[in-house]
Specification:
Blueprint lengths: L3 E5 L4 H12 L3 E6 L2 H10 L5 E4 L5 H14 L4 E4 L14 H29 L3 E5 L12 H20 L6 E7 L22 H12 L9 E4 L5
Parallel strand pairs: 1-2, 1-4, 2-3, 4-5, 5-6, 6-7
Helix pairs in contact: 1-6, 3-4, 4-5
Length: about 230
């Protein structure tokens, strides 16, 4: 049986690149995003057979559906909790709703799939939980208050989960990329010039590196900075 990876935020950017990377290496992908049409198109473009779970990752029923797919497949090797969003503006211009929406996607959207898939990982006593964090978890910047706060929260959350798994062979890690050349950074009034962006495939290959690290190693986090081109 092929190895299985669950990818949230799979329809574009880092998530899509990761699906392509892992499918090309023989994994079965369980793909999640809001748009069922985009996920089905992606699944049909990938080599192999893959599963689609369309739904809002901030809603608990979506993670329940992800677990149902995993139980049907019989295993999970990697959870890549990647869904995220960013709104960048001065603090006084944020509404409470917009601020909370970022926490819902970036923090609750990590918590829920981890919560619901963790029992499967524990039962099989192996596998990797990997989250997309950000260099914003290390650095603060103008107009980034909400986004940076969510990524600091993600780092705290995944660090605690790692401690809870110390008595198992399940691994947890976060990837903290700098700016990535995806639609996420379109029309932003901050960030580096285009020659200092990572490619989404850079992050995807890093996810695979973490997922397939030797059994004798246990990475905590990788800070992935763009090189000058």
């Amino acid at each position: 049986m092929s190895q299985v990876i669950v990818i949230t935020g799979a329809s574009s950017g880092i998530g899509r690149a990761t699906a392509e990377q892992f499918a090309e290496n023989g994994y079965t992908c369980v793909l999640n995003a809001r748009s069922e049409d985009e996920l089905k198109e992606l699944a049909s473009d990938l080599p192999g057979n893959h599963r689609v779970v369309a739904g809002d990752i901030t809603e608990e029923k979506t993670s329940v559906s992800l677990r149902d797919e995993i139980e049907d497949l019989g295993r999970v090797d990697v959870l890549f909790a990647n869904a995220g969003r960013g709104v960048f503006k001065p603090v006084e211009e944020f509404s409470k709703e917009t601020f909370e929406d970022q926490f819902a996607t970036n923090v609750t959207g990590v918590f829920l799939p981890v919560k619901h898939l963790l029992p499967v990982f524990r039962d099989q006593d192996e596998g990797s939980i990997i989250v997309t964090s950000s260099m914003a978890a290390k650095n603060t910047f103008k107009n980034g208050s909400a986004y940076a706060a969510t990524k600091h929260a993600v780092e705290g959350f995944i660090g605690c989960v790692k401690q809870e798994l110390r008595d198992s062979h399940v691994k947890c890690a976060s990837i903290l990329p700098g700016s990535v050349d995806t639609a996420f950074f379109n029309d932003k009034s901050f960030g580096p010039t285009e020659d200092r962006h990572l490619d989404a495939v850079d992050v995807a290959k890093t996810v695979q590196f973490v997922a397939e690290q030797p059994s004798t190693a246990d990475l905590d986090e990788i800070v992935l900075r763009p090189a000058r081109r």
